[in-house]
Write a structure and sequence with these properties.
The strands form 2 sheets. Strands 1-2-3-4-5-7-8-11 form an 8-stranded antiparallel barrel. The chain is mostly beta strands. The longest helix has 11 residues, at 121-131. The protein contains 2 helices and 11 strands, in the order αβββββαββββββ. Helix content is 10%, strand content 62%.
Length: 205
């Protein structure tokens, strides 16, 4: 799948005749997107909204900082079930080529996900009964993301992102002698994201 997407991106006619003179990005952009994340067997599909700030460092390289808001559910029988709200903060390096009509880009960067997990009452009841667990949360965690994108008329964007992040569930409770117990289980909350967006130029070249 990754190879097919990359081959499609490289095959598009995106090379301008005079790349610097025909630069297709403003020196600074605000970029807002709405997205759907796909299920990965552990978490469900869910909505995601993002706000991004982009700086054209030097043609054809862009640095982008972003904050996302993601909502989904855990669905696997192997992990606690409940609502997951994630606030990923990311920094990406982007390489782009294109014209005013159509621009393609590929980016890679690091992200730090701030996670909040709200377990279902039935999950807590079951864990309390069999494992003396009274609270379940998810740790914040680092990850990485690969992005393939297209922009039309400098204003509209379509992106496919692939992220990998492996946070831990933290389950705490009371032992038989009253001591505090804690156990951790690693899970995976990354996957594919399809997003559409709109760009607002802050400063033109």
């Amino acid at each position: 799948m990754n190879a097919m997407l990359t081959a499609l991106w490289l095959s598009l006619p995106l090379a301008p005749l005079n790349p610097v003179e025909e630069d297709t990005l403003a020196s600074m952009n605000a970029h807002f997107t709405v997205a759907v994340t796909t299920p990965n067997g552990i978490i469900s599909a869910g909505p995601e909204i993002s706000a991004k700030y982009e700086i054209l460092v030097v043609h054809p390289f862009v640095v982008r900082g972003a904050v996302d808001f993601k909502y989904c559910h855990t669905v696997s029988e192997l992990f606690p079930k409940g609502e997951l709200i994630s606030l990923p903060l990311s920094l990406d390096a982007i390489y782009y080529r294109g014209t005013d009509h159509l621009t393609g880009y590929i980016g890679f960067g690091a992200l730090y996900a701030i996670n909040s997990f709200n377990p279902k009452s039935s999950t807590i009841d079951s864990l309390m009964r069999y494992e003396s667990v009274t609270n379940v949360d998810m740790r914040h965690e680092w990850g990485y993301r690969l992005t393939l994108g297209l922009r039309y008329q400098r204003a509209y964007s379509l992106e496919i992102s692939i992220s990998e992040i492996y946070p831990e569930f933290v389950m705490s409770g009371a032992g038989p002698d009253g001591e505090i117990t804690r156990s951790m289980v690693t899970t995976r909350v990354g996957g594919f994201r399809l997003s559409v967006g709109y760009l607002f130029p802050i400063r033109e070249l």
